[in-house]
Amino acid sequence: MTIADTSAPVTPDHNTVLSRMRRALRQVPFSVGFGIAWLAGMVLIAIFADQIRPYGITAMDLRSRLALPGTFPHLLGTDELGRDVLSRLIQSIRMSLVIAFGATIISAIFGTTLGFLAAKFRGVVEHLVLVLADFQAALPFLIMSIAILAFFGSSMSLLIVLMGFYGWERYARIARGLAISASAQGYAAAVVQLGATPMRVYLKHILPNVASTLIVSMTLTFPEIILMESGLSFLGLGVQPPETSLGNMVGFGREYLTRAPWIMLAPSLVIMLTTLSISLVGDWLRDKLDPTLR
Amino acid sequence: MAHLLEARDLVRTYQVRRGLLGKPTPVRAVDGVSLTVRPGETLGIVGESGSGKSTLGRMLLGIDAPQGGDVVFEGQAMPEFGTPQWRALRARMQLVYQDPLAALDRRLTIAQQIGEPLDIHKVIPKEHRAARVAELMAAVGLRPDQGGRYPHELSGGQRQRAVIARALASRPKLLVCDEPVSALDVSIQAQVVNMLRDLQDMNNIAMVFISHDLKVVRNIADRVAVMYLGRIVEEASSDVIFKTPLHPYTKALVSSVPVPGKMLEGRVILQGEPPNPANRPSGCAFHPRCSLANDLCRSRVPALLVAGEGRTAACHMVEAPADAVAA
Amino acid sequence: MIRFILTRLLRAFITILAVITFAFVVLRMSGDPAQVMLGPDAPNDTVLAFRAAWGLDQPLWVQYVAYIKSIFSGDFGVSMRDKASAIQLVIERIPATLQLTIPALLLKLAIGIPAGIYAALHRQSIIDRGVIFGAVLGFTIPSFVMGLLLVLLFSVILGVLPSGGQDTWQHGILPTLTMSIGGIGILARFSRSAMIEVMGQPFIRTASAKGLRWKDVVWSHALPNAAVPIVTIVGFMVGSLIAGAVVVESIFSWPGIGRLLVVSVTNRDLAVVQCILLMVAATMVVSNLVVDLLYGWLDPRLRSQSAH
């Protein structure tokens, strides 16, 4: 905005935001549009999985085992036990998205909190966070997850919590850096000087200012968590039967690669398109919101 | 009259490492400064960059802890930075910054930020908040519609007005202004300074006005303290110090301020290098740039002594008048 | 410089110690090692004897010190299944893993970096578009999908390559490809953006303005400066070689460390898992250390900054 419109009547803020969004939407490239549509579809499928799933995921149709895709009544065919691939796919999408979503949130909260603590207390706390980040960097996440699952056995909640440790150091680094620069001079120091408690300074002022950068980082972490979870499930260490996830389906489909490749191809395609969509949309968001993050 | 703020012998040193492998050496940014501020009074603090005036301002507010000396505000010792007592005291003392854009949160509207001290210190009931914000905005000369704007949508002068309104929200008794107008256009500077003076008169606020610019200080200060390399070298009431400066450094500063309708005559031009706190000359810190300096100046630090009624100076060349000693 | 190296060494040491502590804590938290090692049906006096023999009746910190001592003397415990020394089992598998990871790494370097640099110098060319597309594939296709797709194409449909095992050199082709395809794309993309950034710097324009030949500008000015970010990502790739091998070795039944890890986890063979864990961490820490030291050599500015 320039000085020229100082005399213009004040418009309610959400109006300008809406029109800005509309203008931005018109400039969306095709690939990003596709990504948004695909992700919206995935989210809808995850929410309404119970309603749109034609069969139960464990319902066996023993007369039509390993049925080809496109044959009625099994649109995507059936697996070795005659279970409907489409129904299992829908349930898997829900499972993988729920895990990735929960884990992304946990990781963002955990990382941001540690980053803020490091910025606030410096000294020992900061070194501790650095050691933790070094530790995380020293152990490839897949190996660490495998080890933990080996020692404790796999369960759904452990899996989400474990995935929630993925990528926290990225948020911590961003949150710490931005908080330190805001506290050294500028608005955060000014608010401290007004007498605000550290809680208020960090939650009401610093957090909203770093939120867009953090959200962009989430678009980086989210697909990586999907890949990580499906990798673990593929190895049989993640989501356990009778539950099913995308990686888990690929893992079981592998046994029938020669006779029924569709069991494995359908979830593979969903994984690829979903991660592709998120990185397309994420890249685009990054350019729009935060050109400094590359 | 009782003092609102009293600072005694404040010292603040920084560790500076010279070069990559140099040993850290202490640098005295503020070196034994004492001053007092009475209610409703304005004390101007003048000095070049590196004179320690901003550090002094932060110590007066308790943001930086002094390594020596103490600050007493309204008869109470300054609480430690960040403690609840320190935070509560913010309602009584406030800071106005040099760069208003950096001091404002770019994600909140002007009105939200002006009202923030009200939320923090809960000085008035919630339902009066909007009225008080409107009143503050009017007092600093902002239009009501500008309350919904974001900082980057205002001009520099308007932003500084917003910062001042925020500082005044909790009705403080002391305002420390650290170069409040030096980032503004010269045409705006006078407006903001005049506004500050009016607000001060109306609300009986005491002010510590820090600036490198003698012209600005002259317009607003009742008393002026001149700082050089962390020490006060001369202090007197505003009229006196501009009419008859005693310290050679003050003389040089005063002579460089143009007076309308007068030629710049007898102008004392400062020689030598600007002061560097890390490399402090022996004796009187000003002696390398002083035309009067002699051996005494080079070897002994002059004390800040009474040099007339209500004025002090730290210079070997200034004779203490007989009547002042008697008084 | 000495100070720089010392701080890095100290950090590396602390990190290794943190990983060992992590292994110890997880091991103790996961249950009574006596029960785990001997099975739930073990008679009570056997369990007690085991505890005494392994020092499990000592206070926790004594156990911790003893644990660290045994780790540093190379004693990682005994594999539950084979009753063989855990470290022995792991060492036996190392050559097989290296047979896959070294060629895969060389492929990534030999194709990824030149492709990325070429793409940066010829923006919008077919190679440039190919690099961008390949990088997207590298980021979005997980290795287990890539591996299965390659098997489907080359083993099931075309029938030209074996789908699993380690008998002939042909058996190594598909796993190596699976491991390298994604990495090639990622490395190419990194090299491309590092190079583009350097080419936009003022000193490159100065060098061209001085009248230097274009080839000399690229070779002696742009490339050394683009090397810093490329070295980072290569270091990361070296450090995570074993992690990448886990999935690929499982797909192709390749008897390396990765497969050993998955099998040991399924059997809860804790001694072997812990041994691999520490080995992977050591690889990662050492490669990070080498990258850090390389930095200091490539970019003297970083050296003086981190000395503070």
Automatic annotation (TrEMBL), chain A:
User: What are the ABC transmembrane type-1 domain coordinates in residue numbering?
Assistant: 93-282
Which Pfam families does the record match to this protein?
A: BPD_transp_1
| Keywords from the named record | Cell membrane, Membrane, Transmembrane, Transmembrane helix, Transport
Q: Which CDD domains match?
A: TM_PBP2
Gene Ontology annotations for the cellular component aspect, listed alphabetically: plasma membrane
Segments passing through the bilayer:
28-49, 97-119, 139-166, 206-227, 262-285
| Coiled-coil parts of chain | none
Q: How does it sit in the membrane?
A: Multi-pass membrane protein
Q: Which InterPro entries match?
A: BP-dependent_transpt_permease, MetI-like, MetI-like_sf
Q: Write out the annotated subcellular location.
A: Cell membrane
Protein family membership? Belongs to the binding-protein-dependent transport system permease family.
Q: What is this protein called?
A: Peptide/nickel transport system permease protein
Recorded source organism is: Allorhizobium borbori
Automatic annotation (TrEMBL), chain B:
What's a single GO MF annotation on this record?
ATP binding
The record's keywords, sorted A to Z, are: ATP-binding, Nucleotide-binding, Transport
Extract the Pfam families matched here.
ABC_tran, oligo_HPY
Q: Which SUPFAM superfamilies match?
A: P-loop containing nucleoside triphosphate hydrolases (SSF52540)
- Primary localisation category: membrane
| InterPro entries per the UniProt record, alphabetical | AAA+_ATPase, ABC_transp_ATP-bind, ABC_transporter-like_ATP-bd, ABC_transporter-like_CS, Oligopep_ABC_C, P-loop_NTPase
Q: How is this protein named in the record?
A: Peptide/nickel transport system ATP-binding protein
Which residues are in the ABC transporter domain? 5-254
Q: Which family does it belong to?
A: Belongs to the ABC transporter superfamily.
What organism is listed for this UniProt entry? Allorhizobium borbori
Where does the UniProt annotation locate this protein? Cell inner membrane
- GO biological process terms, semicolon-separated: peptide transport; transmembrane transport
SMART domains hit by this protein: AAA
Q: Name one GO cellular component term.
A: plasma membrane
Automatic annotation (TrEMBL), chain C:
Question: A Pfam family in this protein?
Answer: BPD_transp_1
* Superkingdom in the source lineage: Bacteria
Note the topology in the membrane: Multi-pass membrane protein
Task: Indicate the transmembrane segments per the record.
Answer: 12-31, 100-121, 133-161, 173-190, 271-298
**Annotated ABC transmembrane type-1 domain residues:** 94-295
Acyltransferase: present as a keyword of the record? no
Family named by the database record: Belongs to the binding-protein-dependent transport system permease family.
Q: What is this protein called?
A: Peptide/nickel transport system permease protein
